[in-house]
Design goal:
Length: about 200
């Protein structure tokens, strides 16, 4: 569903793809340096700065074969900007954000090795806000993610894909289906009564 929605606003929309399998040792060292500083709190997340540092090292050193996590959703707009999303559950584990961040940085490095002038944006998407109507509780990611440019939650994500109002339209569809099928849904879950 995500790629179908995105095709209205992006010239390319693909799911579950690899962005490459090679990285420079210079980029690997820079990623480790960035991660070490974020983990110790020596620096704050700054995605634009991090990308520039990786870009400087994108072809420095040996070229190593790697197997980065597949991109859940790859988008490219008409100007060639790339958006690579790692889609996560509504309440990811705090400790997981170190690995999420490393994945985002590796996608940048692999992409820049292939095309040093690429405009690459790597993000975490959380399609659902369990705190609705309150804002998503983002404190768990502070210190690791540059929240304003590396995270899209609920409406931010769906409206980014399909345009303004997409999230509202999706919620209305789910509500309508839930209402129309409430007896079937109740009947299905009745089978599990006493088990759960």
């Amino acid at each position: 569903m995500t790629s179908e929605l995105a095709r209205t606003n992006f010239r390319k929309a693909r799911t579950h793809i690899s962005v490459g399998d090679h990285i420079s040792t210079g980029s690997q060292a820079e990623i480790q340096y960035i991660m070490d500083n974020l983990i110790t709190g020596s620096t704050s997340p700054n995605k634009r700065g991090e990308i520039e540092k990786i870009k400087e090292k994108s072809r420095v050193g040996e070229i190593a074969k790697v197997k980065p996590t597949k991109v859940d959703l790859y988008l490219e707009d008409d100007s060639g900007r790339r958006f690579l999303f790692d889609i996560k559950t509504a309440k990811p584990n705090i400790g997981s954000f170190k690995e999420f961040k490393r994945t985002l940085l590796e996608w940048v490095a692999v992409s820049l090795l292939d095309d040093p002038e690429a405009d690459v944006n790597t993000l975490i998407a959380i399609p659902y806000n369990p705190y609705e109507p309150k804002p998503y509780n983002r404190w768990t990611m502070r210190g690791m993610l540059d929240i304003s440019v590396e995270l899209k939650v609920a409406g931010e994500f769906w409206d980014f894909l399909g345009g303004e109002g997409t999230y509202r339209d999706l919620l209305e569809c789910f509500e309508r289906v839930g209402t129309e099928m409430s007896s079937e849904i109740d009947e299905y879950f009745e089978k599990f009564k006493g088990i759960i």
